[in-house]
Write a structure and sequence with these properties.
Radius of gyration: 19 Å
Number of strands: 12
Strand order of the largest sheet: 8-7-6-9-12-11-10
Largest sheet: 7 strands, mixed
Number of domains: 2
CATH class of the largest domain: Alpha Beta
Structural class: alpha/beta
Shape: globular
Helix content: 40-55%
Amino acid sequence: MTTTRFAVIDLGSNTFHLLIVDLQADEQWTTVFKDRRYVKLASEGVEIIGEDSILRAIEVMKEFSQRLLQLQVEETQAIGTAALREAANGIEVAKRLTEESGIPVEIIDGDREAHYILKGIQSALPPLDKPCLIMDIGGGSVEFILYRHQQVLFVQSFKIGVALLYRSFHQQDPMTQESIAALSSHLETALEPVFNLLQQYKEYFLVGASGSFEVIQDVMPKIQKERNWSELDFRNLDAYMTEVIQSDLSSRRLREEIPVERLDYIVVAYILIRLILRHHPPKRFFYCDYALKEGVIADKF
């Protein structure tokens, strides 16, 4: 059977992901190698990407380039999202990354990003009988996609990524109640289109895509666990997230489920997720570790 070795690189606002697969003629693929690095492009805001962030990104892309050579990758697609899309110097940074690593970087818009995320989710999750709200939390933006079966009902990218929220609201640790309330109010306003949408449906399912949801799926009981997705028992999720939200950095360090790279942004991420769950509680809650990069692969067929 003919195979093509293909790599996709997701240059996220917080994390760079590398996924190398063998594409097969029967529209199947097998993972050869995967890696992720916390670059934090948006750590200084999305208005402009700082030089320290650029240097971290260049170093990671050079390492990824060496890995592509070692594993004899035939085709590579490197995709820049919110941080590169929104920053005044985003195009310049993408050019520097391309020149330094030899990997062409393409910056995509929010609609195309959402398209790939949906393709990735649908390639993993089984068909579900209710409207499903995908929530993909990035450093620079959060993508919301509501779909039912093959019909897309709503797609929108919101500039409320965790790097931006952290920079604007998490200025003391632990966060003060005033800061939590201010952030919640900000999100209430920003997400009004989502809340208005959910009011139209008596029941919906929430699908959390990777990122901060990966931590949640590590600690919540599983109703069903499959290779690339889980259905979670989320009855105690609000209490768990509230405990983390109210904790200080030293306390978060003691939590084995939180990777050191997420110790800062996890608080604002949980405030965002908690707001959605309290505003419009879903009927069922799924975690999926497929998202943009798997959607790029699915789009190859």
